[in-house]
């Protein structure tokens, strides 16, 4: 179950027309700020990115957050010593202004599910289980021939766990997450907090798991940007790679200028 503390500024903000120049920036991590790696622990973050995000957060009056499937603790480690607003685990965890405002609890059945997935991984070379305590992901990037078998297992497991958990499918991965958590709802919640309210949301992601966020910001009159061209998307714009995004962010941090046009001007769809 996910419990959200209602933002102090929530009431009366939902119908404010967003400022077209002042943006609120939401960034996925894997495949967006970093390249996808063979296994989850192998990702590398350019050492210039975290200081650039810190500069951009100051430029945006605090309206910058990571929205990722990773746990908050992992992202803190990658971005240290900088500490950002984060919606982790697809929105099952939310920290804003240094305060944890949402934390889902794992159902007891998740522990049994993890054991079953570990047994499967131990029997199949290249399968990786990522236990995030509140959610669990099964990766087959190193064993693409096992995709159908891995997906079938995750779908059976999700069905057995019932309505409290849902299956989130992505690139060479499937994850069991709390049913009430999504990137779209996390972005919507953050947009009702003081630093973000009244701004135009911009969300950048790369995977199926980000589509809910794209739809949410589109509905709010924001801008959705997808990294890559490998499939159809609800995103309005495309960038070729994390490298293209990194170039935009580093330049914006240096010049002190960042708006929705910063991404539109380099759209590579």
Question: How would you explain this protein's 3D organization?
Answer:
The protein has 269 residues and is α/β, with parallel strands linked by helices. It has two domains: 19-104 and 181-264, 3-Layer(aba) Sandwich (Rossmann fold); 108-178, 2-Layer Sandwich (Alpha-Beta Plaits). Helix content is 32%, strand content 23%. It is built from eight helices and twelve strands. The protein has helices at 49-59, 72-79, 108-122, 147-161, 183-190, 211-219, 242-255, 260-264, and strands at residues 19-27, 64-67, 85-88, 93-96, 99-103, 128-131, 136-139, 165-170, 173-178, 199-205, 223-227, 237-239. The strands form two sheets. The chain has an eight-stranded mixed beta sheet with strand order 5-4-3-2-1-10-11-12, sandwiched between helices. The protein has a four-stranded antiparallel beta sheet with strand order 6-7-9-8, covered by helices on one side. A hairpin with a 4-residue loop joins strand 3 (85-88) and strand 4. Helix 1 crosses helix 7 (242-255) and helix 5 runs parallel beside helix 6 (211-219). The longest helix has 15 residues, at 108-122. The N and C termini lie far apart (39 Å). Residues 1-20 have low confidence and may be disordered.
